[in-house]
């Protein structure tokens, strides 16, 4: 749910522009690929063994899932007025969190971009802050903030904001680094001051990309804000969790459907916004300006409305800073000793869940993604059905899937693997489908021309072309899944999340600090590693 | 305003290095107020670098640069900014911000005169907007004021860039191959416009050009660079084409081998 856009996702406009780079020699690439495959396979088997994952559990689970689904139907909405209130609250939290993150990210991005930073040391520090925000999962921020400032939307909004800085700051800075220096030099040559040069020479060039990133992030944050309530950070999540706890699954489904409706509406709205703002027509400059105005004014109004509706005094954004810092200070010095062996076991479990879920996700996503690609799919109806399935899966937060699987297969890591694995198809399946639709059709025709059938086309012309993007996306998926598996424990689906949640609940802050540090290191190492691997293949 | 000094630009022993490359190598130059000097030379001979040293876009490595009364080589950032408001710069690649309208691009020229940053038309006063429109009108593009800059042709874009420079109200104009990315017809139009405007406003002009014929037709004085050194400096009166073409002779090494 939360993360950076990987290369070539349909995410923010134009950030994934391919740059010419010198590729390492082929034999090296092959060796890296083979090693990668071997390590991946080994890790998968080891995780399988470690988690004692058995298909039998799943088969038993099928019955349970069927029963569960039976109890969900028909969905009911107990109290429509309250549900609408909660949905609006959730939506506004997502919006406000993103707006605050944007306000924080803009200056940070200027400090972090190579071509606008005042000093390399400042640049490194700013990049470090951004990476930290990305590596600490949103729910971890939420858990700590709820403890620091009490249950409620404020903690949720701030958690969203802080975690979003990790993505917005990075993509904003990347956009700044990609500008054309010419206009900037022209502004400088008029004698404008430093700030004026940034505002007039840089900002106009990056605004389209920033808007794209912003809209994309609102979308992501909406999915996150649905589950923030699980840890008491406001929104519909709390009500959702209560109805799941009290086994009123029909009411839970009612809420999930209400959320899905909002998510679908958001999807449409963001397509509309992108179309209006990012693909301006040269012939209607006035219409484009009006569109920008309406968007800007609408955003401002919505932000004001969000503050009012959520009863957050905008000043608390400033006045709560000491609380946030105090909360952070209580996490240090991290104490690794308290639970000893239990901690390392939980960390291993988290890694194993991430690895196994990713392997399962890859196995399921490739066929589904290929079915969904217009260029490959045997039939258009099949393609639409597959696309629809992936979209539906993508809009259900992993934590909700985890709750469902905990109900089906019981507490423990197996539920977590299932939830993340299924969740992966919404993400990776879409990337596979997009990659398969973008391939060069020449080789496909060539294989057809020599009399190749559907399977031959697939293996000789399609797969070789989607392979590089598949590897990149899979690594990225691993990164995302490991990050998510650190919070699954909150709903009892295994991993280090349970210990973290307990540590904060029992005010064991130094221990929580140790866990957060470990999560940060793991996520950071995985991110670095996958970045390095992506550069090699 | 006090009477301008008789020399608008003076450089003494100007050197500019990029790492190990010496782009400008000990150039002495004097440009009198109101004069139109054309810099000639092969690609890589240091013309652009020399121009950029004049308004401090490149800090100089050694030597002196005095523009107006400001010692550019040791000016503090604030002084440099003040100087730049009086020095217009026209770029080969126009350097407009494509997404903004022509009017907004022209307004950028006034940034040096106002306090603080500006973003969007609303942040500019009506007086500034009127002035910018007048400049667009002068270069014949008032009708395109509301159009995005990247929808214009190359020649039109360079004219907008010229209007942006005029908006500064400069006394000295530096132009770096202002017509090199344009087709011959547009190049002629833009060059005519540039020179007419400069003459009307009595601007001092230092301009690099690749078209020798244009240079011979317009310049008061010709300065030739080769390998960062000045190899020609004379008034354009009665100069022969052959003499100018000598600037373009390939660099020769000590052994007499031609270096490409
Ligand atoms: N920013 C820079 N960094 C490093 N080297 C540079 C830079 N700018 C110019 N140079 C080098 O300085 C030398 C002179 O370049 P300059 O651009 O001044 O030449 P020019 O006469 O303007 O050429 P052209 O006619 O192609 O524009 C060249 O060798 C160039 O490679
Ligand atoms: Mg040049």
From TrEMBL, chain A:
Its main location: membrane. InterPro entries: MetI-like (IPR000515), MetI-like_sf (IPR035906), PhnE/PtxC (IPR005769). This is Phosphonate ABC transporter, permease protein PhnE. Keywords: Cell membrane, Membrane, Transmembrane, Transmembrane helix, Transport. Residues 1-24 are annotated as: Disordered. SUPFAM superfamilies: MetI-like (SSF161098). It is a multi-pass membrane protein. The chain crosses the membrane at residues 32-51, 91-113, 139-162, 195-215, 222-240, 252-273, 293-312, 351-373, 399-422, 454-478, 485-501, 507-526. It is found in: Cell membrane. The gene is phnE. The keyword Cell membrane applies. It comes from Jiangella asiatica. It comes from the Bacteria. Gene3D superfamilies: MetI-like.
Automatic annotation (TrEMBL), chain B:
The keyword Transferase does not apply. One of its GO terms (cellular component) is membrane. It comes from Jiangella asiatica. The keyword Translocase applies. The gene is phnC. Pfam families: ABC_tran. GO terms for molecular function: ABC-type phosphonate transporter activity; ATP binding; ATP hydrolysis activity. Keywords: ATP-binding, Cell membrane, Membrane, Nucleotide-binding, Translocase, Transport. Residues 9-252 form the ABC transporter domain. PROSITE patterns: ABC_TRANSPORTER_1 (PS00211), ABC_TRANSPORTER_2 (PS50893). This is Phosphonate ABC transporter ATP-binding protein. PANTHER family: AMINO ACID IMPORT ATP-BINDING PROTEIN (PTHR43166), PHOSPHONATES IMPORT ATP-BINDING PROTEIN PHNC (PTHR43166:SF6).
């Amino acid at each position: 749910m939360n993360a950076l856009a990987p290369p070539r996702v349909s995410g923010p406009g134009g950030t994934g522009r391919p740059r010419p780079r010198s590729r390492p020699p082929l034999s090296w690439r092959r060796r890296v690929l083979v090693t990668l495959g071997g390590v991946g396979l080994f890790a998968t088997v080891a995780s399988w063994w470690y988690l004692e994952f058995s298909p039998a559990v799943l088969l038993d689970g099928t019955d349970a899932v069927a029963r569960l689904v039976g109890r969900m139907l028909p969905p009911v909405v107990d109290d429509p007025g309250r549900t609408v209130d909660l949905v609006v609250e959730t939506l506004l939290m997502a919006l406000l969190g993103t707006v605050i993150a944007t306000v924080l990210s803009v200056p940070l991005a200027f400090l972090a971009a190579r071509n606008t930073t005042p000093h390399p040391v400042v640049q490194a520090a700013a990049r470090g802050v951004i990476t930290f925000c990305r590596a600490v999962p949103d729910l971890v921020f939420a858990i700590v903030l709820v403890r620091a400032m009490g249950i409620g939307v404020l903690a949720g909004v701030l958690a969203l904001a802080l975690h979003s800085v990790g993505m917005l700051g990075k993509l904003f800075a990347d956009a700044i680094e990609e500008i054309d220096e010419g206009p900037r030099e022209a502004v400088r040559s008029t004698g404008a001051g430093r700030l004026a040069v940034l505002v007039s020479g840089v900002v106009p060039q990056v605004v389209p990309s920033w808007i794209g990133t912003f809209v994309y992030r609102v979308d992501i944050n909406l999915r996150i804000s649905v589950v923030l309530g699980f840890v008491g950070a406001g929104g519909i999540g709390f009500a959702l969790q209560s109805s799941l706890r009290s086994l009123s699954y029909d009411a839970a489904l009612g809420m999930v459907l209400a959320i899905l409706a909002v998510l679908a509406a958001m999807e449409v709205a963001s397509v509309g916004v992108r179309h209006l703002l990012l693909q301006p027509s040269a012939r209607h400059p006035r219409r484009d300006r009006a569109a920008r105005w309406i968007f800007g004014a609408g955003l401002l109004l919505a932000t004001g409305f969000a503050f009012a509706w959520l009863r957050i005094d905008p000043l608390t954004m400033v006045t709560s800073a000491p609380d946030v810092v105090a909360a952070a200070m209580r996490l240090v010095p991290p104490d690794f000793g308290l639970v000893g062996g239990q901690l390392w076991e939980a960390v291993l479990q988290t890694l194993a869940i991430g690895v196994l879920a990713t392997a399962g996700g890859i196995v399921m996503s490739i066929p589904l993604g290929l079915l969904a690609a217009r260029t490959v799919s045997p039939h258009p109806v099949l393609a639409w059905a597959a696309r629809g399935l992936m979209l539906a899966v993508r809009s259900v937060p992993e934590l909700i899937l985890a709750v469902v699987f905990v109900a089906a297969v019981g507490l423990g890591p197996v539920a977590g693997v299932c939830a993340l694995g299924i969740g992966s198809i919404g993400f990776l399946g879409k990337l596979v489908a997009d990659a398969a639709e973008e391939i060069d059709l020449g080789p496909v025709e060539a294989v057809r021309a020599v009399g190749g059938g559907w399977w031959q086309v697939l293996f000789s012309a399609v797969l070789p072309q989607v392979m590089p993007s598949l590897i990149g996306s899979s690594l990225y998926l691993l990164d995302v899944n490991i990050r998510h598996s650190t919070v699954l424990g909150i709903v009892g689906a295994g991993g280090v999340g349970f210990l973290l949640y307990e540590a904060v609940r029992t005010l064991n802050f130094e221990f929580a600090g140790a866990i957060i540090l470990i999560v940060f290191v793991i996520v950071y190492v995985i991110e670095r590693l996958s970045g390095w691997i992506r550069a090699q293949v | 305003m006090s009477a301008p000094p008789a020399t608008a630009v003076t450089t003494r022993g100007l050197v500019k290095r990029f790492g190990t490359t010496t782009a400008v190598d000990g150039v002495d130059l004097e440009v009198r107020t109101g004069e139109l000097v054309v810099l000639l030379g092969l690609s890589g001979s240091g013309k652009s670098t020399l121009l950029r040293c004049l308004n401090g876009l490149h800090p100089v490595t050694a030597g002196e640069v005095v523009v107006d009364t400001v010692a550019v080589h040791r000016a503090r950032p604030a002084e440099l900014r003040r100087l730049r408001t009086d020095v217009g710069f026209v770029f080969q690649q126009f350097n407009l911000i494509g997404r903004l309208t022509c009017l907004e691009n022209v307004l950028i020229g006034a940034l040096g005169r106002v306090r603080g940053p500006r973003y969007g038309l609303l942040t500019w006063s009506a007086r500034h907007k009127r002035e910018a429109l007048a400049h667009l009108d002068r270069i014949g593009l008032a009708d395109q004021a509301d159009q995005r800059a990247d929808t214009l042709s190359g020649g039109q874009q360079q004219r907008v860039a010229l209007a942006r420079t005029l908006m500064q109200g400069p006394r000295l104009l530096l132009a770096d191959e202002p017509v090199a990315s344009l087709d011959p017809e547009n190049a002629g139009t833009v060059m005519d416009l540039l020179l007419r405007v400069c003459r009307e406003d009595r601007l001092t002009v230092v301009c690099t050009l690749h078209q020798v014929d244009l240079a011979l037709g317009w310049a008061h004085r010709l300065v030739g660079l080769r390998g960062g050194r000045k190899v020609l400096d004379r008034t354009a009166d009665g100069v022969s084409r052959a003499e100018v073409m000598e600037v373009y002779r390939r660099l020769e090494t000590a052994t007499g081998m031609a270096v490409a």
